[in-house]
Amino acid sequence: MTTTTASPRSVRDYTHPLWRRLLATRESAIVGLLIIVAVVAATTVRGFSQPITLTYLLLDVTPILLIALPMTLVMITGEIDLSVGSMVGLSSVVTGALVQAHWPFGVAALVALLVGVLGGAVNGLLVTVVGLPSLAVTIGTLALFRGIAVGTLGTTAVTDFPQQWTALAQARISGTTIPYVMIPFLILLAVFAIVLHFTPFGRGIYAVGLSKDAARFSGVNVERTKLILFVLTGVVSAFAGIFYTLRFGSARGDNATGLELQVIAAVVLGGVSVFGGRGKLYGVVAAVLLIGALSSALRLANVTSDVINIITGVLLVISVVAASVLAWLQKKRRRPNATATTAG
């Protein structure tokens, strides 16, 4: 992915009050919009406020929530991974094929995770060692992984999974409407948030996105950082594929087709710069939930899927355009101040 200098923060940005730095951001705007959509939908759309609606909303967005975590880190470095949807399908097929061959489900799932590690490593090595652009590499592996998945099972589907596992994938925490799968997601969210926002490795991720050369001079191993992130994307996508398989009780080669576009849309909508160097995980999580809540409310209002896709696309375009306009206004506002300082 071509990297362009993102709008870097200056010392002046940190002279504003804390409340302004926390609230006057794209991420906070997405959180606010999520709250507005949820409140409006709960009061105007019949059935949206039912507990079962929240359960199915979370089940629907879980694969996107999971994959969006490592995808956020990858895109902050200025790269992209378009193969995640195909990896979900491939891990689903691997799990199904091994279960069909009478392997224990736990062992089959472990092999699927290893396939995710291998797929992520292939992407990472082609980007970091060979030096190919991640956009071209992951378009190629998107087709490769999907081709292997479809070629393995053909048009058949594996549906004979252990009932205790399929039931667990849809079960709710006792006394709540929250699915159990939210527990591993919250654990992963905490790990990724700590790594990104509170460790030297996370600061290196932002540095790579802003300038690879400057990051190298600062002691960041750019290639190793990107390789680790691509491997994480692969293994988390494989985990999402295992959940996807159990949730729907079916392993097919075309599972999760197009999921990569939903993930990238949510990450960009959540405030991550397409040029790298900027983004926060809470904005991405809020964006995934916003898209999920909006889609759920519109479906309950009998809006067709085509119209839902149009609305989501328009929302994404507005978000990207608004970010570009705000960056341009900030640069324009800083220019007179810089001129005045020089003149003084």
Automatic annotation (TrEMBL):
Does the keyword NAD feature in the UniProt annotation? no
Q: Where in the cell is it found?
A: Cell membrane
**Molecular function GO terms recorded:** transmembrane transporter activity
Annotated transmembrane regions: 29-48, 54-75, 82-99, 105-128, 135-158, 178-206, 227-246, 258-275, 282-301, 307-329
Q: Which Pfam families does the record match to this protein?
A: BPD_transp_2
- Its membrane topology: Multi-pass membrane protein
Query: Where is coiled-coil annotated?
Result: none
Protein's name according to its UniProt entry: Autoinducer 2 import system permease protein LsrD
Q: Which InterPro entries is this protein grouped with?
A: ABC_transp_permease
Q: Please provide, in alphabetical order, the Gene Ontology terms of the cellular component aspect for this entry.
A: plasma membrane
Specify the species: Microbacterium protaetiae
| Lineage top rank: taxon | Bacteria
Task: Supply the alphabetized keyword list.
Answer: Cell inner membrane, Cell membrane, Membrane, Transmembrane, Transmembrane helix, Transport
